[in-house]
Amino acid sequence: MIPPRAPAAAALLVLAPLALPLLGWKPISPARKWFPEDLPVDFRVSEEEEESLDLSGEWTTANLVDRSFQNWEDVPCSDMRAEYAGTNANDNEGFDGDSNTEVKINDLGNDLSSGVLAATVTYYSNGDSVTYNGADYRRITSFDIVFNDGVNFGTPDEIYSPNCEGESSFEAVATHEIGHGIGLGHSCESDEACTNPTLRGAVMYWSIGGCETDREVPNADDVAGLNAMYGVYTDFDVVVPEGMTEGEARTGKVPLTVEFSVPDDVAATAVAYEWNFGDGSTPSTGRDVQHVYEAEGQFTVTLTVTGNSQDCGEYVDSSREVGLVLACEAPTPSFSAVNLGDGKVRFDNTSRQGAYGCTLDYRWDFGDGDDVATFEPVHTYAEPGTYAVSLVAMGPGGEARYDADVVVTVAADPEDGEGAGCHVTGGSAAGGGLVVLLALARPRRRPR
Question: What pTM was estimated for this model as a whole?
Fold first, then answer.
């Protein structure tokens, strides 16, 4: 949100350039950013024109907003991109959160207080997050910008004219609000003593003065913030052998061999690679690597790239995939049975479960022609007797079978025998071949 402010004191205009640390920028809270796979940002602009603008020349509300997006796209080293997607209805549902990025004028919903030029609401997904340049961000899904009513906005021609009469730059305000929409907070807040001229001159400073020029172009602090969030990115892929899915390539029976590769756009500026496979092994180097997981577990893979970009200079960036690889031992099924009376038997699944979800499916054959796929069934037999029951457990580590004879009686087992499995006789476990039936659903992560 940006209110107007009084013009800066003239003394600030004659300060000599200073080598200032660019630490003013900050993300909005909670920190969020657009994920690369969601770019470009498709945006829509009010079908009505901002009536205070002098639109007698080349300017329209839409092309001023487009120009404001371009101000961020033009920042060197940044991957920020946007695309005009047409008009939207200028209704009173200003901040509607309908998954569309929209710009509206005249505050028909009366969402803004007097003195505020415009405001932005940036929507994000709680369920998606990414680590980028050492910071954690949530995934931006869309944003809405609403310009206030009763404000005298000006086009660039008016703002840069020597005859400017106090108009607020529509382009500068739009650029500021778009900054919030892509995740940037203020360089300084209203309650801060902001003596740093670089921070005071930033697009993302908390307010703007009438007829103020150059505030539509991101300065060094704005650029530092944008590049920290969008400047360089690191990513890697799981190499998928022919005939397999990506989930199958990173999920299976130990020892599990997984191959990783760095895409061309990341490798173009990379100088060195360091891979941490999450299993305590020695890190590896190289663009394309193979790793063998020897023990059961779910493992997080991290790639750290040292690079040198013409636009960004030297950088170090990491990409981290949490729980990417699932390596599993073969299942070890077992069960016990309890007679409940009248031929009804409860089967207790005593198979090794482990902590990683390596056994995912169970199939029971009750020995009387019936079968079922469930974890712990209750089955009713038509006649008492001894039945050969089998349990097949299946998962990424393959499948295995456990066989046992179950004695079915008319009378219920004694209460103190419940769960003891004393009516299961014999028993054997037969190992099956490797059957990888699972392709874990995983949203594709892009740069971290």
Answer: 0.57
